[in-house]
Specification:
The chain is of the alpha+beta class. The chain has 2 domains: 211 residues, BirA Bifunctional Protein, domain 2 (2-Layer Sandwich); 71 residues. The protein is built from 8 helices and 7 strands. The strands form 2 sheets. The protein has a 5-stranded antiparallel beta sheet, with helices on both faces. A hairpin with a 2-residue loop joins strand 6 and strand 7. Helix 2 crosses helix 6. It is elongated and about 70 Å long.
Length: 311
């Protein structure tokens, strides 16, 4: 039984900065427990994940600040959209050069669907490939570009465009047609009914989705909930601090600074990775660059805790 398309999944990254930092760190972490023994290599395609996180966070914070000053517009609750484009086990794996060509095709078609040019999207996307039994291309696209919310990035239309592009590009560069692919029938006898074969194919498809979903489970639930809560608080506090600094409202600037200090103290007590800690602190640098003022606090590691997040 042939499949309808190569697998393409889209998911919005929750929790603003913390969600973006967590998932971005995961994508490039060769030692992550989800990758050990499963991922033979991680190949960079386009962009730098740190630069992407900085750009996405900065533009989202600036848009929130603009909306707050104008007293209108909804807060940006997600800074990026994730896409995972997967080839199933048993298909001949593309080379790095072929993946590069496939990635370029898919990105160009995605940008076209978003009514954006590659020049306009520069710095607003990241892509890499995880080489596994079911190799997959990971793409991140910013939710805010040049001060405008990119609403189409999480709509059904872009998924359809990416599926069509992925199908065509894999055929063009690798000579592999999804129409010719027959799903592997692991532990299935000849007498197995058709409905059971279809059910197993659905199960296999769901298993391929777990690679992105399991990242949410990489830390203790309580720490994750608190991390998300504090991330929201910090974003709002930074926006208010920037606003106060630009208005030369010294009293409000100090008030927001004290609130930021308390939030940072709580963040420093959580079980977060070095990469997350660095990315949080880069948000402070972005705020300082925006205002030419200094925030005299940073997220630091509590040496009394054992940090195993993303390990």
């Amino acid at each position: 039984m042939a499949i309808k398309n190569w697998f393409v999944r889209s998911e919005r990254l929750h929790s603003k900065s913390s969600g973006l930092i967590t998932y971005g760190s995961y994508l490039i972490d060769k030692e992550h427990k989800n990758h050990k023994g499963k991922t033979t290599a991680i190949h960079d395609m386009y962009g730098n994940v740190t630069d992407f996180i900085q750009t996405s966070a900065r533009e989202a914070i600036e848009l929130d600040l603009k909306n707050a000053q104008a007293k209108g517009g909804r807060p940006v609750d997600s800074y990026a959209q994730s896409f995972v484009l997967t080839l199933p086990d048993g298909v001949h794996k593309p080379s790095c050069e072929q993946w590069k060509a496939i990635t370029k095709d898919v990105l160009l078609d995605a940008f076209k669907k978003l009514n954006k040019t590659p020049k306009e999207m520069k710095g607003h996307f990241f892509a890499n490939v995880h080489d596994q039994k079911n190799p997959h291309l990971n793409i991140l696209i910013s939710k805010v570009v040049d001060g405008q919310s990119l609403r189409a990035v999480n709509q059904v239309g872009i998924i359809g465009a990416m599926k069509k592009s992925f199908n065509a590009s894999v055929l063009k560069h690798c000579g592999i047609d999804y129409k010719d692919y027959e799903p592997l029938k692991t532990n299935v006898g000849k007498s197995l009914p058709r409905w059971q074969l279809e059910q197993q194919n659905k199960i296999n498809e769901k298993l391929s989705e777990l690679d992105i979903k399991e990242t949410v489970l990489d830390t203790r639930i309580n720490d994750l909930k608190k991390l998300n809560k504090l991330s929201f608080m910090l974003n709002n506090q930074l926006i208010k601090w920037i606003s106060a600094a630009k208005k030369s409202d010294i009293k409000d600037e100090y008030r927001q600074e004290n609130r930021i200090r308390k939030t940072v103290e709580e963040l420093s007590g959580l079980n977060i990775s070095d990469a997350q800690m660095a990315q949080f602190n880069e948000l402070f640098e972005l705020a300082e660059e925006e205002t030419n003022h200094t925030i005299p606090v940073r997220v630091e590691r509590n040496s009394s805790l054992k940090f195993d997040f993303l390990e």
